[in-house]
């Protein structure tokens, strides 16, 4: 099998990039830019444009020396760093921009060609000439990529000769004074910049050939940056020369002035035609390879992934480029096409720069051989969007809407490739820095951000416990569910991949889930409570089902004592299988004098529950049993103030129990029999009294619906529920 032909830095990157940079804008519009913006304005426009091209060139060069660069150029880099949805969206936009840029160059060629031979200069005349040129270049690309690239050496020589001819040319149009700034009646700088900017987008022509390079990691940075640097020198040199050689009014009106001032006009004609045709050829060669790479990844239809011959020449993709470019030629307006191309390229360059910045900032495995300061990528990203906003905010929003639509389409399409993107590293970096900031802050009692360890197993009603745990944790709380598998015989633990559960209801609710083998349920819970979590986001709450039938269990008593000693908030749910949570409309909070800490936790739970979709129309009552001879108005007012401080809207009900002295749980049976969720504080009792408390609680739960028992940790504020000293 013969070797596949590969290209080096000069032929594969530098030459196609430079020829695209020194294209139609240099010969056909740079004079117009100087005439409208003045010399200083033109230089500023050139420099701002090159801030974007240089920063983007540096960014793409750095990324290219870190990763294996495959076919597809910029698309390949973005898709492997930012993921297929972003890479594909930008790749499609850049592909369309590349195809339209072909039309830009060929319409410029048609203007020069028709003007030189005195053919018609009407829009239809330009369309005909541009179409003929497009067909010819497409045929050349179909014949041989190698021949097409070799032809660029002759074009490069022609451009060099044309520039020499211009600098040695006549001075018969020399102005009396050089216009340094825009004159009255000139086009706005925004329009001038939009027309000029495609001139600096040519460096992507070489990157697009990445799949055909011998050593892309070396060729891309060297060829790209040299092409950008040479292009910058040429543009500033020609701008200064033209400003001092030709009157600004002539520059604004005569697009062919370079032919008139050159010492040998045919050399300029050859340069113009060579530059425009080679720039178009660069797009014809690079655009299809980008589409082919996207089709290989199934971003675009697979029909465009097919290639011909040993080099897999992208014939089908080339034909689509031909059709899009022809549509641009039919537009026929060079300035209109230039503005469309500018917006597509600016969007793509913004994402190239932010890709490099994120790789450099977040990816610990990012080790490029071409070192660049990360702030350069951020500068390029900001510059792109500032320029887009200044040029045309409506067009910017339109371009971003198109890219956004492509992004969400590809996300829903769920295209998968065997590659990881940068976002995992980005989030890990954000989380890491956030944890350090959280850990450095002193723990305060002003708010409770739940980090819940939940113990539940698969059952018919597990989903309700999971839903309530998520509701109790609020919008920012963390819930981790542990499914404990008791295995006394096989002591080999589950593999790490088997321990993590990411599907089903856990994914829907945003709950982390783990499955772990243990020998003993109670010691397993205690061990998890002692070891799970890490600095910054330590768990602060344990939630599990109410322990029916365990009132005589010594192991359960020991576990409870350990959890209390560890100072966890404890939540026990007695779930009514028949009533469930009813219609999610009523919640009762039962308070007594001993609930000084539990009361605040109950109010926080109520506040979080109200923010949950299923409980958002819930009515909450605070019920307080008055066992002493205290004026109920005094009690009501004090509770109202406590509740108001915690910003929870509730109904307050004071139950007089001075004479009857009815037991606490019996009163709850009367008032909360039909409540959807009853929340009760667990009082401080000696551990040996636990069995008696469980028995009495079990009797209560037989007559009311679902109930949540809470025991607050010491970090909660003490609410003053001692009303004896309040008595007037």
Automatic annotation (TrEMBL):
The keyword Transmembrane applies. Its main location: membrane. Residues 13-411 form the Amino acid permease/ SLC12A domain. This is Amino acid permease. PANTHER family: GH08340P (PTHR11827:SF72), SOLUTE CARRIER FAMILY 12, CATION COTRANSPORTERS (PTHR11827). It is a multi-pass membrane protein. Pfam families: AA_permease (PF00324). InterPro entries: AA-permease/SLC12A_dom, SLC12A_fam. It comes from Aureibaculum flavum. Gene3D superfamilies: Amino acid/polyamine transporter I (1.20.1740.10). The keyword Membrane applies. Signal peptide: none annotated. It is found in: Membrane. The chain crosses the membrane at residues 7-27, 39-63, 84-108, 128-148, 153-171, 191-211, 223-245, 257-285, 315-331, 337-358, 378-410. Keywords: Membrane, Transmembrane, Transmembrane helix.
């Amino acid at each position: 099998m013969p070797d596949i032909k590969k290209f080096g830095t000069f032929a594969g990157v530098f030459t196609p990039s430079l020829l695209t940079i020194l294209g139609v804008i240099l010969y056909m519009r740079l004079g117009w830019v100087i005439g409208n913006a003045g010399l200083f304005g033109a230089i500023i426009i050139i420099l701002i444009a090159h801030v974007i091209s240089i920063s983007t060139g540096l960014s793409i060069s750095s990324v290219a020396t870190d990763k294996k660069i495959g076919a597809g150029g910029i698309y390949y880099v973005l898709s492997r760093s930012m993921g297929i949805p972003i890479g594909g969206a930008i790749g499609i936009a850049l592909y369309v921009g590349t195809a339209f840029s072909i039309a830009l160059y060929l319409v410029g060629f048609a203007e020069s060609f028709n003007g030189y031979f005195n053919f018609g200069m009407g829009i239809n005349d330009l369309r005909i000439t541009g179409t003929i040129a497009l067909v010819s270049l497409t045929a050349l690309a179909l014949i041989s990529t190698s021949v097409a690239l070799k032809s660029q050496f002759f074009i490069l020589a022609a451009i060099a000769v044309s520039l020499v001819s211009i600098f040695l040319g006549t001075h018969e149009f020399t102005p009396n004074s050089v216009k340094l700034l825009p004159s009255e009646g000139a086009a706005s700088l925004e329009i001038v910049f939009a027309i000029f900017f495609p001139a600096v987008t040519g460096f992507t022509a070489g990157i697009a050939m990445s799949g055909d390079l011998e050593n892309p990691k070396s060729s891309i940075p060297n060829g790209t940056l040299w092409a950008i640097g040479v292009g910058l020198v040429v543009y500033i040199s020609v701008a200064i020369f033209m400003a001092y050689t030709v009157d600004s009014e002539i520059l604004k009106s005569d697009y062919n002035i370079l032919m008139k001032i050159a010492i040998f006009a045919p050399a300029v004609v050859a340069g113009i035609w060579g530059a425009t045709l080679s720039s178009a050829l660069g797009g014809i060669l690079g655009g299809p390879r980008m589409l082919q790479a996207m089709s290989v990844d199934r971003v675009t239809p697979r029909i465009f992934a097919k290639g011909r011959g040993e080099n897999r020449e992208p014939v089908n993709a080339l034909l689509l480029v031909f059709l899009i470019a022809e549509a641009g030629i039919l537009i026929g307006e060079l300035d209109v096409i230039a503005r469309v191309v500018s917006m597509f390229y600016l969007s793509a360059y913004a994402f190239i720069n932010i890709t490099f910045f994120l790789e450099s900032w977040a990816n610990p495995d990012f080790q490029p051989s071409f070192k660049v300061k990360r702030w350069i990528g951020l500068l390029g990203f900001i510059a792109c969007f500032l320029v887009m906003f200044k040029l045309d905010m409506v067009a910017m929003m339109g371009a971003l809407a198109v890219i956004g639509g492509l992004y969400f389409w590809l996300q829903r399409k769920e295209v998968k490739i065997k590659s990881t993107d940068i976002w995992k590293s980005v989030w890990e970096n954000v989380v890491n820095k956030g944890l350090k900031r959280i850990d450095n802050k002193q723990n305060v009692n002003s708010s409770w951000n739940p980090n819940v360890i939940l113990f539940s197993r698969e059952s018919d009603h597990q989903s309700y416990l999971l839903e309530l745990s998520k509701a109790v944790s609020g919008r920012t709380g963390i819930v981790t569910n542990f499914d404990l598998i008791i295995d006394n015989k096989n002591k080999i633990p589950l593999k790490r991949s088997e321990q993590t559960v990411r599907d089903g209801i856990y994914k829907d609710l945003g709950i982390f889930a783990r499955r772990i083998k243990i020998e003993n349920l109670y010691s397993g819970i205690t061990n998890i409570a002692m070891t799970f979590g890490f600095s910054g986001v330590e768990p602060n709450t344990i939630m599990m089902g109410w322990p029916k039938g365990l009132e005589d269990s010594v192991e359960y008593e020991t576990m409870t004592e350990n959890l209390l000693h560890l100072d966890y908030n404890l939540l026990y749910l007695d779930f009514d299988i028949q009533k469930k949570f009813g219609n999610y409309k009523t919640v009762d909070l039962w308070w007594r004098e001993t609930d000084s800490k539990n009361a605040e936790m109950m109010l926080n739970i109520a506040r979080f529950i109200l923010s949950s979709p299923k409980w958002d129309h819930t009515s909450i009552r605070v019920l307080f049993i008055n066992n002493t001879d205290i004026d109920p108005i005094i009690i009501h007012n004090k509770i109202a103030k406590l509740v108001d401080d915690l910003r929870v809207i509730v109904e307050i009900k004071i139950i007089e129990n001075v004479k009857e002295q009815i037991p606490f749980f019996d009163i709850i049976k009367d008032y909360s029999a039909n409540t959807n969720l009853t929340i009760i504080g667990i009082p401080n009792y000696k551990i040996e009294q636990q069995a008696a408390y469980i028995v009495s609680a079990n009797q209560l739960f037989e007559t009311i619906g679902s109930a949540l028992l809470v025991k607050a940790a010491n970090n909660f504020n003490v609410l003053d529920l001692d009303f004896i000293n309040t008595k007037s």
